[in-house]
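ok trying again, last paste got cut off:
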Amino acid sequence: MKVSLNTVQKLVNFKLPPIDELVARINAQLGGVEQVVDLRTKYKYTRIVKVVSCQKHPDADKLTICLIDDGGVVEGVERNSDGLVQVVCGAPNVHDDMWAVWLPPESTVPTTFDDLEPFVLDARKLRGVMSYGMLAAGDELDINDDHDGIIEITEADIHGDQELQPGASFAEVFGLDDVIIEIENKMFTHRPDCFGQLGVAREIAGIFGRKFTSPDWYSMRPEFKDASGLDLEVFNDSDGKSARFMAVALSGVEVKPSPLWLQIELMRWGSKPINNIVDLTNWIMLYSAQPTHAYDYDKLRGAKLGVRMANNGEKATLLNGKEYQFSSDDIVIVDGERVIGLAGIMGGIDTEVDQNTKNIVLEVANFDMYTLRRSAMRHGIFTDALTRFNKGQSPLQTDRIINYLLNNIDAEQASRVFDEGKGAERFDNLKIDSQFINQRLGSDFANQDVRNLLENVEFSVEDLGDQLEIKAPFWRTDIELLEDVVEEVGRLYDFDKLPRQLPRRSTKPVAKSVRRQTKQDIRDYMEKLGANEVLTYSFINEKVIKNAEQDVRKAFRISNALSPDLQYYRLSVLPSLLDKVHMNIKAGHDDFVLYEIGKGHIKDHYDDDGLPSELNFFDAVYASKKPAKNSGAAYFYMRNLLEKLCGYRGVELVFKPIDSENDSSVMRPFEVSRSATVETKDGQVLGLVGELKQSVIHNFKLPNHVAAMTLDLEQ
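nice, full thing came through this time. structure:
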């Protein structure tokens, strides 16, 4: 998440502290700062100039000799009697009386600023004519990808009340005298509002103890006017997966490059300009954290736009040019006939806004974050919109956002504003007192202290005397519990400033569960016996399952595998252990026991909720390259170890022959005739102990003297 300090400074009502102090406070109270980029150095020498005259180069058809007016501010360059500077330019669009960006001698071309050998300009002759620096194109300034000509600045390109002045600092006029702080996204997992400049600015105000006020357009619920001109039908048939789906049609759109101030602001925030319509939708997302999308109205079949769950097998080509096939688990955007987008993730190419677009439909919506996450993993698509939606955006901000777009896109409203599904209201108010907070933080806050901290970040707090009634702002979807308020107070105050003392309440630990105590007892005793615990992934390769002669069809295949080698849930723990024996033999260990307490999953085992059951195993393997006294030595070694372990727990064991018809996944690696079922005296089956099949020994490259056991910890 890239945050512009110029943007933050405009939003807060106090002067930001020095960079080092600001970064330290953000690190401690908001999120980890990954990088600080100082754009002031990169654009230090860039100047706005007026091209006074142009004439063709006498020895080069594509070069133009320009005289520019920089107001006389740049030193060390030769000037004519009128104080103008000569620059040779190769751009086809240079002309008299235009405003351009000049890079004088000794300045670095911004697009090369981070290169190992940046390109530093000097005064030199081009085809025999002296040129002092260069007039820059958009790509050379690292603003956009345009190299067809130099940047031409007009009054419309400047945001606010500033005027074009010869020699003005390009960086100051366009906000490039900026410092960009990149904050790690992982820190904001539960904070959707912090994925926009507005939310981060609010938090910075809060951690410095200053009151923040959101812009009126964002904090106040808008009223919409009726309009007509374009027929449009909007529907929400998403079975509750879209809490709110808003749309409006606009006519008279002219698609063109965005004004320069907007292009540069997008660049500072980490995005690239495309056109004025798409840029504004991206701008509002990066500002408020609410994704939006624009459709070409004339490409919508049936003049319809809606959201629903996909039908199995439906297909669409998205903006990345790839075709995807959807399932009933995907939320999709549709028109009157077809799928035109994967909701909350990426729009479709069939309704893309392009240079010929005259009418558009704006969509601002809210989608179920869990469904979007699964869709993204299934299809392998990850976008800026998804990053924000899957943090749980508030459906209560969509009306503010669509109203802002309506008021800032140069077009006419041509339909009413559709609002399908009003969205869930904010959580109930919370009543809390300072004592509850102090007991958990070790602090000594009064009610007024708590109130001040929360009101700084726009919570509504009412003092009820002995309690505070707290109403979280609509964008704070993470505030549900009293403990959430405690965390908020501690963070805004700064956890590092809290007294270093034990909590003023009981610290008695929770009693260990029987299962956890059993696992700990096993570890303690196996350590005494000299066994080695290993920890392996629950995910394994298909080859490992087959090497253990287990049935791959009974294993769950992972749709979003961490790697090609980890595509399946293991059926039992033993194959993972066997896979580690050979590497230990190669490392020089010739007599050892490996064990693991872990989980397995089998397709025909489900819990009461219909979810895959977690089967808890304690598995061990004994391997030795040393000569054995008899052929069953490995088996009896493992059996003896098991008897000692269970005896330590006060359990007496009985070993019985294995039913030859038993073909369970757990039993598959074992040689039935040289293995036994492990039972208690009262007949409860615990697991298996025995030698492995010769084929399994061969598959895993095991030594000849090897035995294993597997116990069901649930028993």
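cool. The domain at 44-173 is CATH 2.40.50.140 (OB fold (Dihydrolipoamide Acetyltransferase, E2P)). The longest helix spans residues 633-648.
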